[in-house]
Amino acid sequence: MKRRVAIVGFGFMGRMHYANWKKMKGVSVVALCDKDASQFKSPITSGNLAGADASTDFGDAVIYDDFDKMLAEAKPDIVSITLPTPLHVPLTSAALKRGIHVVCEKPMALNAADCGAMLKAKAAAPKGTQLMIAHCLRFWPSYVFLKKLVDSKRYGNVLAASFRRYSPPPGWGKGASWFMDESKSGGMALDLHIHDTDTVQFLFGLPKAVTSTAVWDKAGVMQHISTVYDVGGPVVTADGSWCVNPTMGFEASYHVTFEKAVVILDGKREKPLCVYPAKGAAFEPKLAEGDGYAYELKWFLDLVNGKKVQSVITPEQSRDAVRVVDAEKKSARTKKTVKL
Q1: Which residues pair with residue 256 across a beta bridge?
Q2: CB neighbour class for 72 (10 Å; exposed up to 12, middle 13-18, buried from 19)
Q3: Which stretches does DSSP call E strand in 231-292?
Q4: Which residue among 133, 277, 286, 306 sits deepest, i.e. has the most Cβ atoms within 10 Å of its Cβ?
Q5: Angle at which helices 292-304 and 12-22 pack, to 10 degrees?
């Protein structure tokens, strides 16, 4: 029996979910929902076009503009929620109440308190109802590779690790200005930088404290943040920024120093991912094909189907990623270290 999937929100990320769900075995995309009907009438023209589905032919999927009506009529087993962050808690909670499994885009919510409301909805849902927040880097091959090195200590302990995520200010898609409204998106720290904040948690556990500095524009919107994470050992830092010119483009990179090797991910280098061991020649590791978007949805489908899966992400860890970003924002504002 195929699992019935519905997607709510059909901007770039909605199309990314659609592209991956529709080619997955054991799944049938039965409904698409967005209040903006124009989202279905023209192909996307920006973002990662190699990953998102740019077509206007949606097969047998029924198009809706009302979430509750879609749930009642389409009767999905799984809902992908790819809407602006303020809508995550109410729509996820409504689906969970009906016993519908939910995969919701990151961040989980605008703050840790709202994340707690979603966790309560999960606890009150019918037994076996699953919830996943789509922190895709935990499934991305280059980050999975790094996680294995950290855990196995193949090259010894980590001495230092730095992560960077730089982007021009968001200007893609319709209504992109909502990203600049921190009351709706949480701003750069919660929408962009949280990828690396969660990666730090993924690799080293929940930090004990954070010390952050930041730059804001004239309107008071955070444009750049730099954080030192106290993880009880290595020096760990991460920078997130919207201060990048379009001529530079997007950058997501890491530089991790082990006792016996340095590992660098940088798409602008000749070798985007390379291991530099203390002994022997540098080499490019062989990674699994595909990207984190596909792997996270496949993992969630296996979880829903009751298969034994390795624990990769929990709703509580997603809440904690928001907790850490909350602390980073407070640290930047107060110019003080904030404990967690």
Answers
A1: 161, 263
A2: exposed
A3: 235-241, 251-258, 261-265, 273-277
A4: 133
A5: 60
pTM value is 0.94
Give the pLDDT of residue 1.
81
- Under 8 Å between Cβ of 95 and 79: yes
> Which among 149, 146, 289 has a CA at the least distance from the CA of 298?
289
> In this structure, are strands 3-8 and 78-81 parallel, antiparallel, or unpaired?
parallel
**DSSP 8-state class, residue 190:** I
| Distance (Å, whole) CA 101 – CA 108 | 15
Q: Both tokens of residue 242?
A: 């919207």
> For residues 167 and 314, is the Cβ–Cβ distance under 8 A?
no
> Considering only CA atoms, which of 237, 218, 202 is closest in space to residue 328?
237
Write the CB contacts of 204 (distance below 8 Å, at least 6 apart in sequence): 150, 158, 161, 229, 231, 232, 233, 234, 236
Collapse the DSSP code of 160 into the 3-class scheme (helix H, G, I; strand E, B; otherwise coil) and give the result. strand
